[in-house]
Every structure is written in C-alpha cells, then in structure tokens.
Amino acid sequence: MSITATSVYLAQRPEGLPDESTWEIRQHELPTELNESEILVKVNYLSLDPAMRGWLNDVRSYVPPVQIGEIMRALGTGEVLESNTPNFSPGDRVQGLFGVTDYAISDGRGVTGIDLDVAAEPTWLGALGMPGMTGYFGLLDVGELQDGDTVLISAAAGAVGSVAGQLAKARGCRVIGIAGGEEKCAWLTEIGFDEAINYKNEKVLSRLREVAPDGINVFFDNVGGTILDAGLANLARGARVVICGAISTYNDPTLAPGPSRYMSLLVFRARMQGFVVFDYRDRYPEAVEAIAAHISNGSLVARETVVGGGVRGFPEALLGLFQGVNTGKLVLEI
Amino acid sequence: MSITATSVYLAQRPEGLPDESTWEIRQHELPTELNESEILVKVNYLSLDPAMRGWLNDVRSYVPPVQIGEIMRALGTGEVLESNTPNFSPGDRVQGLFGVTDYAISDGRGVTGIDLDVAAEPTWLGALGMPGMTGYFGLLDVGELQDGDTVLISAAAGAVGSVAGQLAKARGCRVIGIAGGEEKCAWLTEIGFDEAINYKNEKVLSRLREVAPDGINVFFDNVGGTILDAGLANLARGARVVICGAISTYNDPTLAPGPSRYMSLLVFRARMQGFVVFDYRDRYPEAVEAIAAHISNGSLVARETVVGGGVRGFPEALLGLFQGVNTGKLVLEI
After folding, report:
1. Does B325 lie at the interface with A, CB-CB under 8 angstroms?
2. Of A102, A89, A208, A94, which is closest to residue A154 (Cα–Cα)?
3. Distances (CA, A) of B285 to A198, B133, B140, B160, B282
4. What pTM value is reported for the model?
5. Chain A contact set for B249 (CB, 8 A)
6. Name one Pfam family in it (chains A, B) (predicted).
7. Of the candidates A62, B106, B202, B293, which lies 20 to 30 Å from B263 by C-alpha distance?
C-alpha cells in the first residue's frame, strides 16, 4: 500500500513551554512493503500526556529523550491496515507508541489489542490505558492503600487522578481531590469524591486542615510545587506520598524549588516514593480487568476530553494540557 | 539533702541562631525530700544535639517544644545521689532527659542504667546513646541496608553519621562520607570509610558521580539543603533516602527551600522516608548490644568531642555544634 503520512517531528528543544519553533510538521512516504513482524496502523486517537514535556529535555530520565529530527513520541490507538505478523490481522484495533502521526509502521513491540466492546478507543488511552495503569499501581502498590485511609489526590480531575480517586472511593476510603476550577470540582463531587478543593480560589493548606483534621494517609501527587507542600503539611503519621508527576514545574526552564516541607516526612514518619508505570508492564492485564469491572458496574466513570485538529493540531492540543483544558483524559482525534 | 542547682532556662524563642537573649541561667533550690519513685541525680555530662534547635520552635513536631521558662531539654549522664525507688541505688550511673542542669530530680521515666565497664559516660551519650540508636535503626530499618549496597552518609563525622557509616562498613558495604574539613575527612578514612568528600572545598555533586558511578543505594541524610540535592541526583534505582535531620536548615528563620531534585525519586523509583528514633525505644537494647559488640571487637570507633564549661558553658557549646566543631559526639562536661 502506498501511504503518505503526516507526522510531527521534534525540531528544537523548548525552553519553557513548547512553541512553533519546537515542531516541524511534514509529510513523508511510508515504505510500501512491511518487514517481518511489522504492522501498518492507521492512527485514530493520540494521547496527550504531561510526561511528554519531560521527554523533550535532553537529560537522563526513565526513558531516553526524544531526539531532534525524530517523530514525537506518543501513545495512540488505531486500526491495523496491513500485518506481517500472526499476532495482528487487518481490522484489529490496537494501542501502542505510534508517535504523533496519522499512519505508522510498527514492529509490534508494546502494541496490544483493544476491545471496543469494553470501551471506545479514547478510553483505552485513559482509564484503560497508561493513565489508568498509573492510577492503579500508584495508589495500590506504591501508596499501599489501606481500608479507612484518607486519600488526597492532586490534579484529581485529570486522567490519572480521576482513576486513582475513584479506585480509592471504591475501596471505601475518604477521598479529597484538588483541581483547578469550579467545573472540575463539581465533576469530582459528582463522581463521588468526598471533598473537592479548587486551588484557583481556595487556600489549599488551610482547607486541607479543615477537611482532613486527622491528616492524610495517602497523598497521590501529580502536581508538585505549593500543592505538594500543602499536602506534606497535613500528613497523618505513617503517610505514603506517591510521586507520580509534577505538572506545575514541567515548563519551568530552571530547576524549580523542591518541597520546603519535606521534613514533614520525619515529623510524621512518612515516606515519599516515586515510580514509573512501565515497571508494572507485566501486571497491566490485572489493572485493565479491575478497572474495566469498575466501569462496567458503574463505580468508575471514565471520561475523556477529545479535541480535534488531527496531527497538525498536536502542538496546540499539547499546550491545552498545561492550561488544564481537560477533564479526564485529553485525547487528540486524528 | 539540700542542693542548689544551676540550670539553663529558655527565656525567649530565637529567630535564627540562639544568642544570649535565648537563655536565662540561674540557681534554684531543689526540694529536700524526694517523692515516691524519684531520684536525685548529679549530672556529669550533657548531650548537645542538632535536634535541640527544633525543640525551641513553637511548632507542631514529634515532641512538644520546650516552653518559655522551662529548663532546656537535654539528655545527660550522671550519678544517682539519692533514690526513692527500688530501680536505682545511690552510686548508680544513669542516662536520661535530665535537662541542662547540674543536679536534677527525676521521676525515673526514660532513665536507664549505664555500664561504665562497657564504655565511659560520654560514649553513652554518643555511639551507645540516642545518636547510636538513630544510626542503627535509620540505616538498618528505615534504609533497609542490603549486602553490596553503596551507602552515602552526610555529616558523616558527626555522632549519628559516624555510627551509621561504620555499621554499613561492618556489613561490608561501600561507604562514602561527606564532612566539613580535611581533618574530619581524614578521620573518616581512618575509621574505614571508602571515600570522604569535604563539602567545604569539593563539588559534592560531581564528586559523587565519580566515586559512585553506579549510584547510591542508601543515602542517610543529616544535613538537607544542597547536599541532599547532590545525593538525590546520584541515586541508584530503588534507592532509599533516610531523612534523619537537616542541620543545614535548622537556624534558617524562614522555611528553607526543599530538595529541587526530589523528582529523582521518580526517575530512580526511589523513596525518601523520615523517622524518629523514639519509636524504636523498645528495641534500644538490641542496638546497644550490637554497637557495644562492634566497639569491643574494634569494628566501630566511638568518638566524642568533650567541651568544658559546665552548665554555664551550654549556650556557647550549642553554637559549636552548628559550627561543626565536633568530630563524633559533642558532649558538655558539667
């Protein structure tokens, strides 16, 4: 098949927020023949992730940075058009790291089939995708959630936070969410959060003291900065602080200050622990099964904010993530 | 017995370093009769601890602050002069929270006997006292030391650090110490540390990269600030960062910035955990026995810096701690 793909390439590493100089968007011909084990995929949806900002920095991290001149790394879902492996057949719906492109040839590594009877494609990038896995293993394994815990989630209306919070609720825990804006907070209450704090017009530190007078047992932090500090100041003894992300600092061109209140870890005999969801790869099926069951019995609402614009809409859609335009998972429709 | 004691009282909470306005030193008569279960102790040595600075702040912490008008809290060793309890007899040597005073009446709570055949009194405030317990449980329990670990200790020539480092060496681990000054570093090498970094004239971050190219598995931090950050930047995967103290920040009248590199916890799947040694109270005998055995077979050198001056020398002696005058445990002779 002769295919002209349109892809977004990394042209230049950004300082601060990515802008038009960061990207080059161009068409290119895909090879007409697949090699052994390859598949040709038509991409339908792309995942927009806070982690993408980190992948643009030329520093040692949990994955290599995207190189200048490479297609921007992205998870996506789509349809197999051609296959040179017995693992996939044309017509299969799949999920994988296809990059910011409308057509991709993949060697099949990390590609998994998705079942549209369970949920639509965008959900496989959200609650049933990497964000869902992140919420599940972060809360249960890293956070060691216990019955009766008071749980705090920052960026609670986001893709990861909304899953983590609802899983904690399903366990019967008291759950407090922090989000930006009345609308997001109203949604959190609607899906069962006990408290929703709007950081844009409430004082998070003192509000936490009110709503969690006995302190927080598990703090699942996606944000960093002053919100991390506010949580640290309100821990319960033996608390677990799960370091999932720090979206408030990702576009800071300097090294942002760390949590001033980290000595709370000593006062409260608490721990702060980081993780990378890829380490749980072998256990994804367990999480997918659990989350799918929660979706199907109504105890977990999977929500996505789908934006249009196709491949060429990627630069703007990515900025939307840092402006907090999304409730639930932010997905770009191709 | 009619006793006139001299004691140091907290007169005013300091901002920054304590000064002469912080303390009031005066004589007072002790009651002539002991109540049920009380003992009268002649204090011989007082422990000078970085934690003392925290006890002066009127904030919620792991122990209540010292109140204005109270005798300053301090651990000490001494001799029982009179006893109204079968637990102690006149002539017994004891250790306890007697306060900054030369004579104390104690209700016996937290007072334990010490054996001068095992070690002299100052050692019972150092390697066999709270600092030793702190090094032992911090390294083994909180740090979960494993065979083959590379261990980093900050304030390594101090009371806690020197015990923690030597325990790690005794376990066969590779141990790197950070200390201030050539003399302290020379001593660290003498007692078996594999590397000693003088933070006063070496770049800690880049030196760590050289001496621990595969990263640090356990980082026992007593210091905070830029040294904590340098360690965080050089962790190994799955590292444990033990938060024991933050002496670099204790006299900062504002809330000092936290560790900018805390996101290393995510990159390295590491954890940072605080603890308070008092929680291990029931297991002190285990640690005393282990450390005493190491002292006796020569695998652990217990060192103290004893300063004179008696009770009235306390204010100056305490400042010496923050200037780093001590190698090993800083003790005030009464």
Report:
1. no
2. A208
3. 50, 9, 15, 17, 8
4. 0.94
5. 263
6. ADH_zinc_N
7. B202
